[in-house]
From TrEMBL:
<keyword id="KW-0328">Glycosyltransferase</keyword>
<dbReference type="Pfam" id="PF01501">
    <property type="entry name" value="Glyco_transf_8"/>
</dbReference>
<dbReference type="GO" id="GO:0047262">
    <property type="term" value="F:polygalacturonate 4-alpha-galacturonosyltransferase activity"/>
</dbReference>
<dbReference type="InterPro" id="IPR029993">
    <property type="entry name" value="GAUT"/>
</dbReference>
<dbReference type="GO" id="GO:0000139">
    <property type="term" value="C:Golgi membrane"/>
</dbReference>
<keyword id="KW-0961">Cell wall biogenesis/degradation</keyword>
<comment type="pathway">
    <text>Glycan metabolism; pectin biosynthesis.</text>
</comment>
<feature type="signal peptide">
    <location>
        <begin position="1"/>
        <end position="22"/>
    </location>
</feature>
<keyword id="KW-0333">Golgi apparatus</keyword>
<dbReference type="InterPro" id="IPR029044">
    <property type="entry name" value="Nucleotide-diphossugar_trans"/>
</dbReference>
<comment type="similarity">
    <text>Belongs to the glycosyltransferase 8 family.</text>
</comment>
<dbReference type="InterPro" id="IPR002495">
    <property type="entry name" value="Glyco_trans_8"/>
</dbReference>
<dbReference type="GO" id="GO:0071555">
    <property type="term" value="P:cell wall organization"/>
</dbReference>
<keyword id="KW-0808">Transferase</keyword>
<dbReference type="GO" id="GO:0045489">
    <property type="term" value="P:pectin biosynthetic process"/>
</dbReference>
<protein>
    <recommendedName>
        <fullName>Hexosyltransferase</fullName>
        <ecNumber>2.4.1.-</ecNumber>
    </recommendedName>
</protein>
<keyword id="KW-0732">Signal</keyword>
């Protein structure tokens, strides 16, 4: 009997030990899994940060292109020839032509926008492009279009410094935006150290990083709000971002009746792509702030910047620019608590009540952040927009969407070839 008791005690002890060991192993396994998940999560955020830096940097090939073309401007008289030629200057204010405005410091991107518009047009001889750039890029941009004319279209290249009206005295709020410490820290600071990564998702973090592109504090990005003053003799213009490609004749845009509205734009609150086309005012503004809650409706539909037809005659009768400035100042006073995403939020307010929706097929968005973009829909769109970090001229661009852009890059050009652009 004592022998049986010993056996029973041994079995019981073994079970207890096994249970104890099993519990320890499970706890160890759970800790290990938790550590792996934390490391995977941290690596995902690090990947997003690296992508943000890659999106903000200037590729070596594009920097090379700008430098070589700037050098060409100083040494080659053909690169400095007047754009357009003197006999064509009166056409720059002729409203029987189709006037496009492009504001950028990216020469390669500008070349693609203009080439795609001209090649897609049924009447390219009616096209006039007004390309506006900054002082440092002006010589290189001028060289490109002087040496690569887009005949029969007309291209004008101007630097911001060449507009007498566009001075710091006339737009002091922009100087405040560029020099505001909070803004500089927001766009150039350590984005991870200030973020609570345990309480945010990678997708939300990616969205916030996209909103922190330094381009949002550039005067070139705010320039569209001054179109009526920059082009006082023009009645209608189409404004294009530099990350678009034109795939269809855009001349019918000038025939759209805006019904007295100022801005013809595609609404972004309905569409097949629920990620890209689901933007309401609540996506852009902080409705916990009383000033926003009092003045705006969170369910109001947003619209797209990047391909807009502007009726400048109607615009000149409105106080859109002053409203834009007022809200920029309010956001500065509130230490950027009204909104954080670039130039679209103040424009959503300034153009409120002045927007005429146009058919979504005119402007397809999201090619710079939606990897699952429907390629068949891309083929049908008049203008495709690589808004987002994954620009087609960057290594992080989506490979299956890049060909829609690269087809307009002139790889036979000596400057493109020598700088190994998208080699």
């Amino acid at each position: 009997m004592p022998h049986v008791k010993c056996i029973f005690f041994w079995i019981l002890l073994s079970k207890l030990c096994f249970t104890s060991n099993s519990f320890s192993l499970n706890r160890l396994f759970a800790q290990q899994m938790e550590r792996y998940e934390r490391e995977i999560r941290e690596s995902k955020f690090a990947e997003l940060m690296n992508k943000h830096f890659a999106a903000s940097a200037i590729p070596k090939s594009i920097h090379c292109l700008s430098l070589r073309l700037t050098d060409e401007y100083s040494s080659n008289a053909h690169a400095r020839k007047q754009l357009p030629s003197p006999e064509l200057l009166p056409l720059l204010s002729d409203n029987s032509y189709h006037h496009f405005v492009l504001s950028t410091d990216n020469i390669l991107a500008a070349a693609v926008v203009v080439a795609s518009a001209v090649q897609s047009s049924l009447n390219p001889e009616k096209i006039i492009f007004h390309v506006i750039t900054d002082k440092k890029t002006y010589a290189g941009m001028h060289s490109w279009f002087a040496l690569n004319p887009m005949y029969p279209a007309i291209v004008e290249v101007k630097g911001i410094h060449q507009f007498d009206w566009l001075t710091r005295e006339n737009v002091p709020v922009l100087e405040a935006v560029e020099n505001h410490n909070g803004i500089r820290n927001y766009y150039h600071g350590n984005h991870i150290s200030r973020a609570n990564l345990s309480e945010t998702t990678p997708r939300t973090f990616a969205s916030k990083l996209q909103a922190r592109s330094p381009k949002y504090i550039s005067l070139l990005n705010h320039l569209r709000i001054y179109l009526p003053e920059l082009f006082p003799k023009l009645d209608k213009v189409v404004f294009l971002d530099d990350d678009v490609v034109i795939q269809r004749d855009l001349s019918p845009l000038w025939d759209i009746d805006l019904n007295g509205k100022v801005n013809g734009a595609v609404e972004t609150c309905k569409g097949q792509d629920k990620w890209v086309m689901s933007k309401l005012f609540r996506n852009y503004f902080n409705f916990s702030h009383p000033l926003i809650a009092k003045n705006l409706n969170p369910e109001e539909c947003a619209w797209a910047y990047g391909m807009n037809i502007f009726d400048l005659r109607a615009w000149r009768k409105r106080n859109i620019r002053d409203t834009y400035h007022t809200w920029l100042k309010e956001n500065l006073k509130s230490n950027l608590t009204l909104w954080k995403l670039g130039t679209l939020p103040p424009a959503l307010i300034a153009f409120k009540g002045h927007v005429h929706p146009i058919d979504p097929s005119w402007h397809m968005l999201g090619l710079g952040y939606q990897n699952k973009t429907n390629v068949e829909n891309v083929k049908k769109a008049a203008v495709i927009h690589y808004n987002g970090q994954s620009k087609p001229w960057l290594e992080i661009g989506f490979e299956h969407l890049r060909p829609f852009w690269t087809k307009y890059v002139n790889y036979s050009n000596d400057f493109i070839r020598n700088c190994h652009v998208l080699e």
